[in-house]
Amino acid sequence: MYSISFVETEPQLKQVLDFLLRHLRGISPYRYEDWKERIERDSKLLVYAHEDGNVISAVLGRRENAESLVCGFVACEIGHRRQGITQKLMDIFEAEAVQAGFRYITLGSEEDGFYEKCGFHVINEMHGQKIYQKLLRRDSPNDIFVKKRDC
Question: Checking CA distances to 110, which of 4, 26, 70, 125 falls within 20 to 30 Å?
Answer without folding.
Answer: 4
